[in-house]
Amino acid sequence: MNKEIFTKPLFKGNPISVLVLGICSALAVTVQLEGALVMALSVTFVTAFSSLIISLMRNTIPNRIRIIVQLVVVAMFVILIDQVLKAFAYQVSKQLSVYIGLIITNCIIMGRIEAFALGNKPFASFVDGIANGLGYGIILVIVAFFRELFGSGTILGYQIIPQNWYIANGGFYENNGLMILPPMALILLGCVIWVQRAIQKDLQEK
Amino acid sequence: MADYISLFIKSIFVDNMVFAFFLGMCSYLAVSKSVKTATGLGLAVIFVLAVTVPINFLLNKYILQPGALAWLGEAYANVDLSFLSYIVFIAVIACFVQIVEMVVEKFAPALYASLGIFLPLIAVNCAILGGSLFMQERGYANIGEAFTFGLGSGVGWFLAIVAIAAIREKLAYSDVPKPLRGLGISFIITGLMGIAFMSFMGIQL
Fold it and tell me: How many Å apart are CA B205 and CA B201, to the nearest integer?
Protein backbone atom coordinates (compact mmCIF):
# COMPACT_ATOMS: atom_id res chain seq x y z
CA MET A 1 0.00 0.00 0.00
CA ASN A 2 1.71 3.19 -1.10
CA LYS A 3 0.72 6.78 -1.68
CA GLU A 4 1.22 6.45 -5.42
CA ILE A 5 -2.06 4.53 -5.77
CA PHE A 6 -3.94 7.55 -4.51
CA THR A 7 -1.98 10.43 -6.03
CA LYS A 8 -1.25 9.10 -9.52
CA PRO A 9 -4.83 9.15 -10.90
CA LEU A 10 -5.28 12.76 -9.81
CA PHE A 11 -2.79 14.23 -12.27
CA LYS A 12 -0.08 12.08 -13.86
CA GLY A 13 -2.32 9.13 -14.64
CA ASN A 14 -5.61 10.97 -14.86
CA PRO A 15 -8.30 8.62 -16.22
CA ILE A 16 -9.74 11.20 -18.63
CA SER A 17 -6.86 13.23 -19.94
CA VAL A 18 -4.16 10.56 -19.90
CA LEU A 19 -5.81 7.14 -20.04
CA VAL A 20 -8.75 8.36 -22.21
CA LEU A 21 -11.34 6.47 -20.18
CA GLY A 22 -14.86 7.62 -19.44
CA ILE A 23 -15.02 10.50 -21.89
CA CYS A 24 -18.59 9.80 -22.91
CA SER A 25 -20.34 10.93 -19.77
CA ALA A 26 -17.66 13.45 -18.86
CA LEU A 27 -18.68 15.77 -21.66
CA ALA A 28 -22.42 15.51 -21.58
CA VAL A 29 -22.96 16.49 -17.95
CA THR A 30 -20.71 19.54 -17.84
CA VAL A 31 -23.16 22.26 -18.87
CA GLN A 32 -23.85 23.06 -15.21
CA LEU A 33 -21.44 22.70 -12.31
CA GLU A 34 -24.09 21.05 -10.12
CA GLY A 35 -24.67 18.17 -12.54
CA ALA A 36 -20.93 17.70 -12.89
CA LEU A 37 -20.46 17.46 -9.11
CA VAL A 38 -23.27 14.93 -8.72
CA MET A 39 -21.90 12.89 -11.58
CA ALA A 40 -18.36 12.97 -10.15
CA LEU A 41 -19.59 11.77 -6.75
CA SER A 42 -21.72 9.02 -8.31
CA VAL A 43 -18.86 7.73 -10.42
CA THR A 44 -16.48 7.81 -7.43
CA PHE A 45 -18.96 5.80 -5.38
CA VAL A 46 -19.57 3.22 -8.10
CA THR A 47 -15.88 2.83 -9.00
CA ALA A 48 -14.79 2.45 -5.38
CA PHE A 49 -17.40 -0.09 -4.35
CA SER A 50 -17.45 -2.18 -7.52
CA SER A 51 -13.64 -2.38 -7.40
CA LEU A 52 -13.93 -3.52 -3.79
CA ILE A 53 -16.53 -6.21 -4.55
CA ILE A 54 -14.78 -7.52 -7.66
CA SER A 55 -11.49 -7.58 -5.79
CA LEU A 56 -13.07 -9.67 -3.03
CA MET A 57 -14.41 -12.12 -5.64
CA ARG A 58 -11.37 -12.04 -7.92
CA ASN A 59 -10.23 -15.59 -7.19
CA THR A 60 -13.63 -17.18 -7.78
CA ILE A 61 -14.79 -15.51 -11.03
CA PRO A 62 -14.32 -17.80 -14.06
CA ASN A 63 -12.26 -15.95 -16.66
CA ARG A 64 -14.57 -16.50 -19.64
CA ILE A 65 -17.65 -14.87 -18.16
CA ARG A 66 -15.93 -12.20 -16.09
CA ILE A 67 -17.25 -9.31 -18.21
CA ILE A 68 -20.86 -10.25 -17.49
CA VAL A 69 -20.15 -10.71 -13.77
CA GLN A 70 -18.47 -7.30 -13.63
CA LEU A 71 -21.32 -5.64 -15.50
CA VAL A 72 -23.89 -7.08 -13.12
CA VAL A 73 -21.99 -5.84 -10.05
CA VAL A 74 -21.56 -2.39 -11.57
CA ALA A 75 -25.19 -2.24 -12.71
CA MET A 76 -26.32 -3.01 -9.17
CA PHE A 77 -24.50 0.02 -7.76
CA VAL A 78 -25.72 2.24 -10.58
CA ILE A 79 -29.34 1.25 -9.91
CA LEU A 80 -28.74 2.16 -6.26
CA ILE A 81 -27.43 5.63 -7.25
CA ASP A 82 -30.24 6.13 -9.74
CA GLN A 83 -32.96 5.31 -7.20
CA VAL A 84 -31.37 7.52 -4.51
CA LEU A 85 -31.11 10.46 -6.92
CA LYS A 86 -34.70 10.00 -8.09
CA ALA A 87 -35.85 10.04 -4.48
CA PHE A 88 -33.77 12.92 -3.08
CA ALA A 89 -32.61 15.05 -6.03
CA TYR A 90 -35.24 14.63 -8.72
CA GLN A 91 -34.31 17.77 -10.71
CA VAL A 92 -30.66 16.74 -11.01
CA SER A 93 -31.68 13.21 -11.91
CA LYS A 94 -33.89 14.55 -14.74
CA GLN A 95 -31.08 16.80 -15.95
CA LEU A 96 -28.56 13.94 -16.07
CA SER A 97 -31.16 11.71 -17.82
CA VAL A 98 -29.61 8.65 -19.44
CA TYR A 99 -26.07 9.51 -18.36
CA ILE A 100 -26.62 8.03 -14.89
CA GLY A 101 -27.49 4.73 -16.53
CA LEU A 102 -24.48 5.06 -18.75
CA ILE A 103 -22.17 4.96 -15.72
CA ILE A 104 -22.51 1.17 -16.17
CA THR A 105 -20.58 1.33 -19.41
CA ASN A 106 -18.27 4.09 -18.21
CA CYS A 107 -14.89 2.78 -19.26
CA ILE A 108 -13.20 4.09 -16.08
CA ILE A 109 -15.05 1.52 -14.00
CA MET A 110 -14.47 -1.46 -16.27
CA GLY A 111 -10.96 -0.26 -16.96
CA ARG A 112 -10.01 -0.06 -13.27
CA ILE A 113 -11.65 -3.41 -12.53
CA GLU A 114 -9.80 -5.11 -15.39
CA ALA A 115 -6.49 -3.38 -14.86
CA PHE A 116 -6.36 -3.12 -11.08
CA ALA A 117 -9.04 -4.83 -9.01
CA LEU A 118 -8.63 -8.24 -10.66
CA GLY A 119 -5.02 -8.41 -9.50
CA ASN A 120 -4.90 -6.54 -6.21
CA LYS A 121 -6.09 -6.76 -2.60
CA PRO A 122 -9.53 -5.32 -1.71
CA PHE A 123 -8.37 -2.27 0.25
CA ALA A 124 -5.88 -1.15 -2.41
CA SER A 125 -8.58 -1.60 -5.07
CA PHE A 126 -11.00 0.49 -3.03
CA VAL A 127 -8.48 3.34 -2.73
CA ASP A 128 -7.65 3.05 -6.42
CA GLY A 129 -11.37 3.33 -7.21
CA ILE A 130 -11.79 6.45 -5.10
CA ALA A 131 -8.71 8.10 -6.56
CA ASN A 132 -9.79 7.43 -10.14
CA GLY A 133 -13.26 8.73 -9.42
CA LEU A 134 -11.74 11.91 -8.02
CA GLY A 135 -9.36 12.28 -10.97
CA TYR A 136 -12.39 12.05 -13.24
CA GLY A 137 -14.22 14.55 -11.06
CA ILE A 138 -11.43 17.14 -11.25
CA ILE A 139 -11.61 17.31 -15.04
CA LEU A 140 -15.41 17.40 -14.94
CA VAL A 141 -15.41 20.31 -12.51
CA ILE A 142 -12.84 22.29 -14.52
CA VAL A 143 -14.78 21.90 -17.77
CA ALA A 144 -18.15 22.57 -16.12
CA PHE A 145 -16.80 25.65 -14.32
CA PHE A 146 -15.81 27.36 -17.56
CA ARG A 147 -18.90 26.24 -19.45
CA GLU A 148 -21.28 27.49 -16.79
CA LEU A 149 -19.38 30.74 -16.17
CA PHE A 150 -19.12 31.78 -19.82
CA GLY A 151 -22.25 30.03 -21.08
CA SER A 152 -24.76 31.12 -18.45
CA GLY A 153 -22.84 33.67 -16.35
CA THR A 154 -23.49 31.65 -13.19
CA ILE A 155 -21.62 29.31 -10.83
CA LEU A 156 -23.70 26.61 -9.15
CA GLY A 157 -26.77 28.63 -10.15
CA TYR A 158 -25.61 31.90 -8.53
CA GLN A 159 -25.23 34.89 -10.84
CA ILE A 160 -21.53 35.85 -11.09
CA ILE A 161 -21.51 38.26 -14.04
CA PRO A 162 -23.23 41.46 -12.78
CA GLN A 163 -26.68 41.93 -14.29
CA ASN A 164 -25.99 45.49 -15.49
CA TRP A 165 -23.12 44.25 -17.68
CA TYR A 166 -25.56 42.59 -20.06
CA ILE A 167 -26.48 44.27 -23.32
CA ALA A 168 -30.14 43.77 -22.46
CA ASN A 169 -29.59 46.00 -19.41
CA GLY A 170 -27.52 48.61 -21.26
CA GLY A 171 -24.11 46.99 -20.71
CA PHE A 172 -21.53 45.47 -23.03
CA TYR A 173 -21.59 41.74 -22.20
CA GLU A 174 -23.38 38.78 -23.74
CA ASN A 175 -23.27 35.12 -22.69
CA ASN A 176 -21.44 32.88 -25.13
CA GLY A 177 -24.20 30.61 -26.41
CA LEU A 178 -21.72 28.21 -28.00
CA MET A 179 -20.42 27.25 -24.53
CA ILE A 180 -23.59 25.40 -23.59
CA LEU A 181 -23.71 23.45 -26.87
CA PRO A 182 -22.08 20.00 -27.06
CA PRO A 183 -19.09 20.75 -29.35
CA MET A 184 -17.64 23.29 -26.93
CA ALA A 185 -17.18 20.59 -24.27
CA LEU A 186 -14.89 18.71 -26.64
CA ILE A 187 -12.87 21.80 -27.49
CA LEU A 188 -12.51 22.78 -23.81
CA LEU A 189 -11.38 19.27 -22.92
CA GLY A 190 -8.85 19.50 -25.74
CA CYS A 191 -7.54 22.71 -24.14
CA VAL A 192 -7.36 21.09 -20.67
CA ILE A 193 -5.24 18.32 -22.17
CA TRP A 194 -3.10 20.93 -23.92
CA VAL A 195 -2.37 22.72 -20.63
CA GLN A 196 -1.69 19.48 -18.78
CA ARG A 197 0.74 18.22 -21.40
CA ALA A 198 2.52 21.54 -21.54
CA ILE A 199 3.22 21.16 -17.80
CA GLN A 200 3.92 17.42 -17.80
CA LYS A 201 6.19 17.11 -20.82
CA ASP A 202 6.63 13.31 -20.72
CA LEU A 203 2.96 12.82 -21.60
CA GLN A 204 3.38 14.41 -25.02
CA GLU A 205 2.79 12.17 -28.03
CA LYS A 206 5.14 12.07 -30.98
CA MET B 1 -42.99 4.93 -44.58
CA ALA B 2 -42.04 8.62 -44.68
CA ASP B 3 -41.95 8.56 -40.87
CA TYR B 4 -39.35 5.82 -40.88
CA ILE B 5 -37.18 7.62 -43.41
CA SER B 6 -37.26 10.87 -41.46
CA LEU B 7 -36.50 9.02 -38.20
CA PHE B 8 -33.60 7.27 -39.93
CA ILE B 9 -32.12 10.53 -41.28
CA LYS B 10 -32.71 12.25 -37.95
CA SER B 11 -30.90 9.60 -35.95
CA ILE B 12 -27.94 9.65 -38.34
CA PHE B 13 -27.37 13.39 -38.58
CA VAL B 14 -29.37 15.47 -36.11
CA ASP B 15 -29.14 13.16 -33.10
CA ASN B 16 -25.71 11.84 -33.99
CA MET B 17 -24.48 9.58 -31.19
CA VAL B 18 -20.98 11.06 -31.14
CA PHE B 19 -21.48 14.74 -31.88
CA ALA B 20 -24.74 15.41 -30.07
CA PHE B 21 -24.55 12.95 -27.15
CA PHE B 22 -20.85 12.01 -26.83
CA LEU B 23 -21.70 8.33 -26.76
CA GLY B 24 -19.06 5.76 -27.60
CA MET B 25 -16.30 8.35 -27.27
CA CYS B 26 -13.81 5.97 -25.69
CA SER B 27 -13.60 3.52 -28.56
CA TYR B 28 -14.15 6.41 -30.98
CA LEU B 29 -10.85 7.93 -29.83
CA ALA B 30 -8.97 4.71 -29.21
CA VAL B 31 -9.71 2.92 -32.49
CA SER B 32 -9.63 5.83 -34.93
CA LYS B 33 -5.98 5.74 -35.90
CA SER B 34 -6.58 4.02 -39.25
CA VAL B 35 -9.60 3.98 -41.56
CA LYS B 36 -9.51 0.20 -41.96
CA THR B 37 -9.92 -0.72 -38.29
CA ALA B 38 -12.38 2.13 -37.81
CA THR B 39 -14.56 0.67 -40.57
CA GLY B 40 -14.50 -2.76 -38.91
CA LEU B 41 -15.55 -1.43 -35.54
CA GLY B 42 -18.16 0.86 -37.12
CA LEU B 43 -19.81 -2.04 -38.95
CA ALA B 44 -19.86 -4.14 -35.78
CA VAL B 45 -21.53 -1.27 -33.91
CA ILE B 46 -24.21 -0.84 -36.62
CA PHE B 47 -24.98 -4.55 -36.43
CA VAL B 48 -25.15 -4.78 -32.63
CA LEU B 49 -27.23 -1.60 -32.30
CA ALA B 50 -29.69 -2.68 -34.98
CA VAL B 51 -30.32 -5.95 -33.15
CA THR B 52 -30.15 -5.04 -29.45
CA VAL B 53 -32.39 -1.97 -29.62
CA PRO B 54 -35.41 -3.93 -30.96
CA ILE B 55 -34.77 -6.78 -28.47
CA ASN B 56 -34.66 -4.34 -25.59
CA PHE B 57 -37.73 -2.60 -27.00
CA LEU B 58 -39.69 -5.86 -26.73
CA LEU B 59 -38.40 -6.52 -23.21
CA ASN B 60 -39.29 -2.98 -22.18
CA LYS B 61 -42.75 -3.18 -23.68
CA TYR B 62 -43.78 -6.60 -22.39
CA ILE B 63 -41.85 -6.94 -19.13
CA LEU B 64 -40.31 -3.77 -17.75
CA GLN B 65 -42.48 -0.71 -18.18
CA PRO B 66 -45.27 0.09 -15.69
CA GLY B 67 -48.27 -2.12 -16.37
CA ALA B 68 -46.38 -4.14 -18.97
CA LEU B 69 -47.12 -7.43 -17.26
CA ALA B 70 -50.88 -7.05 -17.78
CA TRP B 71 -50.77 -9.88 -20.33
CA LEU B 72 -50.02 -12.29 -17.46
CA GLY B 73 -53.37 -11.52 -15.86
CA GLU B 74 -55.18 -8.96 -13.74
CA ALA B 75 -53.00 -9.45 -10.68
CA TYR B 76 -49.87 -8.29 -12.48
CA ALA B 77 -51.35 -5.17 -14.09
CA ASN B 78 -49.85 -2.81 -11.51
CA VAL B 79 -46.33 -4.19 -11.42
CA ASP B 80 -43.60 -1.69 -12.34
CA LEU B 81 -40.24 -3.28 -13.04
CA SER B 82 -38.65 -0.28 -14.75
CA PHE B 83 -35.97 0.00 -12.05
CA LEU B 84 -34.56 -3.26 -13.42
CA SER B 85 -34.09 -1.89 -16.91
CA TYR B 86 -30.36 -1.09 -16.62
CA ILE B 87 -29.48 -4.58 -15.51
CA VAL B 88 -31.74 -6.25 -18.10
CA PHE B 89 -30.48 -4.09 -20.97
CA ILE B 90 -26.82 -4.57 -20.16
CA ALA B 91 -27.29 -8.31 -19.68
CA VAL B 92 -29.00 -8.58 -23.08
CA ILE B 93 -26.20 -6.61 -24.71
CA ALA B 94 -23.40 -8.58 -23.04
CA CYS B 95 -25.04 -11.93 -23.87
CA PHE B 96 -25.76 -10.90 -27.44
CA VAL B 97 -22.21 -9.76 -27.99
CA GLN B 98 -20.94 -13.06 -26.58
CA ILE B 99 -23.28 -15.04 -28.86
CA VAL B 100 -22.32 -13.02 -31.93
CA GLU B 101 -18.68 -13.56 -31.12
CA MET B 102 -19.13 -17.33 -30.91
CA VAL B 103 -21.26 -17.54 -34.07
CA VAL B 104 -18.91 -15.41 -36.10
CA GLU B 105 -15.91 -17.37 -34.85
CA LYS B 106 -17.52 -20.65 -35.93
CA PHE B 107 -19.05 -19.73 -39.29
CA ALA B 108 -17.01 -16.80 -40.61
CA PRO B 109 -13.44 -17.14 -39.38
CA ALA B 110 -12.19 -14.50 -41.84
CA LEU B 111 -14.61 -11.91 -40.54
CA TYR B 112 -13.76 -12.94 -37.00
CA ALA B 113 -10.08 -12.38 -37.63
CA SER B 114 -10.71 -8.84 -38.83
CA LEU B 115 -13.41 -7.98 -36.30
CA GLY B 116 -12.56 -10.32 -33.44
CA ILE B 117 -10.82 -7.98 -31.06
CA PHE B 118 -13.54 -5.34 -31.35
CA LEU B 119 -16.50 -7.53 -30.52
CA PRO B 120 -15.86 -7.87 -26.76
CA LEU B 121 -15.14 -4.13 -26.66
CA ILE B 122 -18.60 -3.39 -27.95
CA ALA B 123 -20.30 -4.76 -24.84
CA VAL B 124 -18.96 -1.80 -22.91
CA ASN B 125 -19.40 0.76 -25.68
CA CYS B 126 -21.74 3.37 -24.26
CA ALA B 127 -23.30 3.98 -27.67
CA ILE B 128 -24.93 0.55 -27.46
CA LEU B 129 -26.42 0.91 -23.99
CA GLY B 130 -27.19 4.55 -24.82
CA GLY B 131 -29.21 3.41 -27.83
CA SER B 132 -31.40 1.24 -25.62
CA LEU B 133 -31.78 3.91 -22.93
CA PHE B 134 -32.74 6.60 -25.46
CA MET B 135 -35.21 4.16 -27.01
CA GLN B 136 -36.80 3.77 -23.56
CA GLU B 137 -36.72 7.48 -22.73
CA ARG B 138 -38.20 8.63 -26.03
CA GLY B 139 -40.85 5.92 -26.00
CA TYR B 140 -40.86 4.72 -29.60
CA ALA B 141 -44.25 3.36 -30.59
CA ASN B 142 -43.45 0.07 -32.27
CA ILE B 143 -40.65 -2.31 -33.09
CA GLY B 144 -40.19 -0.86 -36.58
CA GLU B 145 -39.36 2.54 -35.14
CA ALA B 146 -37.02 0.99 -32.58
CA PHE B 147 -35.20 -0.89 -35.33
CA THR B 148 -34.96 2.22 -37.53
CA PHE B 149 -33.60 4.23 -34.62
CA GLY B 150 -31.02 1.56 -33.75
CA LEU B 151 -29.88 1.23 -37.35
CA GLY B 152 -29.73 5.00 -37.88
CA SER B 153 -27.71 5.64 -34.73
CA GLY B 154 -25.32 2.88 -35.75
CA VAL B 155 -24.82 4.41 -39.19
CA GLY B 156 -24.28 7.84 -37.61
CA TRP B 157 -21.61 6.43 -35.31
CA PHE B 158 -20.00 4.62 -38.26
CA LEU B 159 -19.82 7.86 -40.27
CA ALA B 160 -18.30 9.74 -37.35
CA ILE B 161 -15.55 7.22 -36.64
CA VAL B 162 -14.61 6.76 -40.30
CA ALA B 163 -14.47 10.54 -40.80
CA ILE B 164 -12.23 11.16 -37.78
CA ALA B 165 -9.99 8.24 -38.75
CA ALA B 166 -9.51 9.72 -42.21
CA ILE B 167 -8.70 13.12 -40.74
CA ARG B 168 -6.25 11.64 -38.23
CA GLU B 169 -4.43 9.78 -41.00
CA LYS B 170 -3.86 13.12 -42.75
CA LEU B 171 -3.03 14.81 -39.45
CA ALA B 172 0.15 12.76 -39.19
CA TYR B 173 1.70 15.10 -41.75
CA SER B 174 0.72 18.39 -40.16
CA ASP B 175 2.67 20.52 -37.72
CA VAL B 176 0.62 20.46 -34.52
CA PRO B 177 1.98 22.12 -31.32
CA LYS B 178 3.71 19.41 -29.27
CA PRO B 179 1.44 19.29 -26.18
CA LEU B 180 -1.63 19.16 -28.41
CA ARG B 181 -0.51 16.20 -30.54
CA GLY B 182 -2.60 13.06 -30.58
CA LEU B 183 -5.38 13.24 -28.06
CA GLY B 184 -5.73 17.00 -27.68
CA ILE B 185 -6.07 17.80 -31.36
CA SER B 186 -8.47 14.87 -31.85
CA PHE B 187 -10.80 16.42 -29.28
CA ILE B 188 -10.67 19.83 -30.90
CA ILE B 189 -11.30 18.37 -34.36
CA THR B 190 -14.23 16.36 -33.02
CA GLY B 191 -15.61 19.60 -31.59
CA LEU B 192 -15.27 21.32 -34.95
CA MET B 193 -16.96 18.37 -36.68
CA GLY B 194 -19.71 18.65 -34.07
CA ILE B 195 -20.23 22.30 -34.98
CA ALA B 196 -20.51 21.25 -38.62
CA PHE B 197 -23.08 18.60 -37.73
CA MET B 198 -25.05 21.20 -35.77
CA SER B 199 -26.07 22.71 -39.08
CA PHE B 200 -28.44 19.74 -39.45
CA MET B 201 -30.27 20.85 -36.33
CA GLY B 202 -33.65 22.37 -36.93
CA ILE B 203 -34.10 20.63 -40.28
CA GLN B 204 -37.76 19.74 -40.62
CA LEU B 205 -38.30 16.34 -42.16
Answer: 11
